[in-house]
Amino acid sequence: MFPALEDQISCCTDKWAARHCLVHEETGVVVPMLCGKYKCKYCGPRRVEMWRSLIEVAEPERFITLTGAGKTLAEVGRVATTIVQRLRRQGYKFEYCMTFERHKNGRFHIHMLQKGDYIPQKFLSECLRSATHGSAYVVDIRRCVPGTAGYVTKYCTKVLAASEVGSRADGTRARVNRVRYSKCLFPSATKVLKAELRAAAAEKQRAQGDEVESLEGTWKLLEVAPLPRDKQGHIDEEAMREQYRRLVAKRVQEASTEPMKLSKGGKQVLAFMVLQSLRLGELDKTFEQVISCQDFAQNDQDVTFWCEEGLVKGNLARQTERRKPLF
Q1: CB-facing half-sphere around the CA of 262: CA atoms within 13 A
Q2: d(Cα 124, Cα 138) in Å, to the nearest integer?
Q3: What is the tens place of the pLDDT at every residue in 213-238?
Q4: DSSP letter string over 2-57?
């Protein structure tokens, strides 16, 4: 498999991002381009961690799950919109942030973090039944606790097929919007909040004695490696694959000189992504490294790791002597 799992974790290995970089126009500083995709094992955990931090700033009060709301992301989006509109017409103050989880039965659940008025479960169940034309009615309402935002946002990293995304009324492919939120959920614009969170993280690093470089001004996108083409102008597939391998190897070498900077929440998301890839057969099953799994969120010592016998649960402290953790 290429790129290897440890390479996907250490840097962004997206094909388009590998051929591009960002250049600071005033200083000439060059930084690697990132894809920013949820499915990327480098960008995904960081993007989800940002959403988790934003949601914690919003301080939602309730965790609502609407079960079996639809078979495609487009259908589920329409159901969610219908429910929210009905609640607001009834006079309820309802601010939300929602994500969608694809269940093994092929249907999607809506995970919603809400603040505002309490909605009686019976009425919310009736709203779901009406919006799905009777195909779904199961609703769960709980109080938000620490860790709820991380649990909800990790499902953004699941890869969806085109058939699971669905289409619009005009037949075009629906937009994949993994996180949806109401305008008044956050105390200010998400762009402003993200800048404040990044500034706070940089200040924390400085307080710990780390050197943090902050560059103001304009950045320019630069293509460092154009796609190789033959004499007729067609893309040379073999040369493109070789170019990609070379670019990824260079990125991995540069990333290996720096320690991996990922919060505990980001590591939990990464563990979830690796476990999903193992279940889908996307990773080499002979890859013998310790990986954290979903249990990592409840107990730091309980992990799932892949070995010759299969997927095994064990204690990290007893395994590190013969297997080095990925993170």
Answers
A1: 21
A2: 9
A3: 777 889 999 999 999 999 899 999 99
A4: -S-HHHHHHS---HHHHTEEEEETTT--EEE-----TT-TTHHHHHHHHHHHHHHH
Minimal CA–CA distance to 245: which of 260, 222, 220, 228?
228
Length of the chain: 327
What are the phi and psi torsion angles at 28 (to 5°)?
80, 10
* Confidence category of residue 304, pLDDT binned at 50, 70, 90: very low
**Strand pairing class (30-32; 20-24):** antiparallel
Strands 139-143 and 62-70: what pairing?
antiparallel
- Predicted structure pTM score: 0.80
Whether the Cβ atoms of residue 286 and residue 311 lie closer than 8 Å to each other: no
233-279 pLDDT, tens digit per residue, is: 999 999 999 999 999 999 998 887 666 677 777 888 888 888 888 77
Class at the top of the CATH hierarchy for domain 61-181: alpha beta
- Give 190-210 pLDDT, tens digit per residue: 999 999 998 888 888 888 887
Side-chain half-sphere of 19: how many Cα atoms within 13 Å? 12
As a whole number of angstroms, the distance between CA 108 and CA 164 comes to 9
User: CA–CA distance from 20 to each of 47, 124, 222, 235 (Å)?
Assistant: 20, 48, 6, 17
Cα distance between residue 267 and residue 41, in whole Å: 10
Q: What DSSP designation does 225 have? A: S
Give me the residue spans of the domains in the chain: 1-41+219-327, 61-181
Residue 114, strand partner residues: 62, 96
Give 112-132 pLDDT, tens digit per residue.
999 999 999 999 999 999 999
Q: Judge contact between 48 and 154, C-beta under 8 A.
A: yes
Cβ neighbours for 298, distance < 8 A, ≥ 6 positions apart: none
Q: How far apart are CA 272 and CA 269, in angstroms?
A: 5
